[in-house]
Amino acid sequence: ENILAVLGGRPLDYLVINHMEPDHCGNIETIVRMFPKVTVVGNKKTFEFFKQYYSLDISQNALVVKEGDTINLGQHTLKFHMAPMVHWPEVMFTIEQKNGILFSADAFGSFGAHPGTIFADETDYDRTFLDETRRYYANIVGRYGSQVQTVLKRLPLESITMICPLHGPIWRKDIQYILDKYALWSTYTPEQNGVVLVYASMYGNTENAMNALANKLAERGIPDLRMYDVSKTHPSYIISDIWKYSHIVLASPTYNMHLYFPMESLLREMAALNVQNRSVALLGNHTWSSAAIKLMSGLLGTMKDIRFIGEPLDIHSSLKAEQEKELDALADAITQSYITHV
Ligand SMILES: Cc1cc2nc3c(=O)[nH]c(=O)nc-3n(C[C@H](O)[C@H](O)[C@H](O)COP(=O)(O)O)c2cc1C
User: Fold this and answer.
1) If you take atom 9 of ligand 1, which residue's CA is the nearest one?
2) Is residue 204 within 6 Å of ligand 1 at its C-beta?
3) Ligand 1 in contact with 231 (CB < 6 A)?
4) Which domain does 67 fall in, by range?
5) Which of 6, 90, 142, 187 reaches 20 to 30 Å from 304, CA-CA?
6) Confidence at residue 276, expressed as pLDDT on a 0 to 100 scale
7) Do residue 293 and residue 247 come from a single domain?
8) 342 pLDDT above the threshold of 80
9) What is the pLDDT of residues 154-190, one digit of tens each?
10) Are residues 20 and 150 in the same domain?
């Protein structure tokens, strides 16, 4: 309906597919059926993926483009840049040359619906979108930081006046703001100093130890603490804060000689998303035979540039006054690392 309204009775000449993910390409078949003469623009992989998802034969409509190819539409020229693994292998960016409009597929996108406006500068971006843009980046594109870097270095960023992602607001002012965020996120550089504390707990004793540690960190002057129960918060929110902050504390009971599974799942997700360059402290809890700290260290050991802080604290069922000194030492070590972190 929207396309018909914009066209006002004219035929559709071109359809450019920047990304073949189903949340964007579900209507291609319908569009080709409505406009049988439309030229569908994509790269070799785009059409391979199209065949996997759909059954309509669009080979007569297909125009296969490569890196740097252009299409002259008359007033506008479109130039295509391949952006493999800026989410999927077939992703490409399209730049409209006359006005410098970058159609960036999933890059620079955000979760969340438009609040009645489509431009980032017409929203209170920091309050309404920044967290959701980070959560989107970390969880959807986070694994592919080096590929994001490669594409950003290759694009003529100085000539871009507008960024139109496939999700979230359009950028037309202060574009450098979101480019700067991407420069940090794609190099796994924390945006700011802060401690994300994530615990698993069945009876509340590990939670209690984490609360005690958080209090000690607050007493030592660390203002930015984020605490999560791994069983209660969707991992995408925890991962997003891990992307934002410099320090992480993980706490888990031993569970059938494994980690408590939501904690194991979080750690595996962190590894899959290539989380790196963070300072991490560990806290374990067990009643008869300890495995949690070893298992957490092992999974963290598969990630790059993870710096362990202080001695891991293993509590025996519940935190006792005798272990307060060890908790203080851990809080001191985290504080020291926080203060000296640049
Ligand atoms: C299903 C289950 C399996 C457990 N497996 C172990 C274990 O393998 N080794 C151990 O020392 N404690 C084990 N525990 C005990 C917990 O690690 C212990 O109670 C711990 O203090 C729980 O911490 P919480 O109070 O934060 O839930 C297990 C507990 C449950 C419920």
Assistant:
1) 289
2) yes
3) no
4) 2-186
5) 90
6) 98
7) yes
8) no
9) 999 999 999 999 999 999 999 999 999 999 999 999 9
10) yes
Residue 252 and residue 198 in contact, taking contact as beta carbons nearer than 8 Å: no
**Boundary residue ending a domain (137, 152, 186):** 186
Question: Is there an atom of ligand 1 within 6 Å of 279 CB?
Answer: no
Same domain (yes/no): 40, 164: yes
**Structure-token pair, residue 74:** 């008359």
What is the 257 CA–ligand 1 centroid distance (Å)?
A: 9
Q: How many domains does the chain have?
A: 2
Examine the fold and report which residue of 167, 186, 205 is the final residue of a domain before the chain moves on. Answer: 186
Q: Model confidence over 27-54: pLDDT tens digits?
A: 999 999 999 999 999 999 999 999 999 9
Residue nearest to atom 29 of ligand 1 (CA): 255
CA pair distance 273, 269, nearest whole angstrom: 6
The answer to whether residue 50 is domain-embedded is yes
Question: 294: CA distance to ligand 1 center in Å?
Answer: 15
Q: Looking at the structure, do residues 11 and 152 belong to the same domain, yes or no?
A: yes
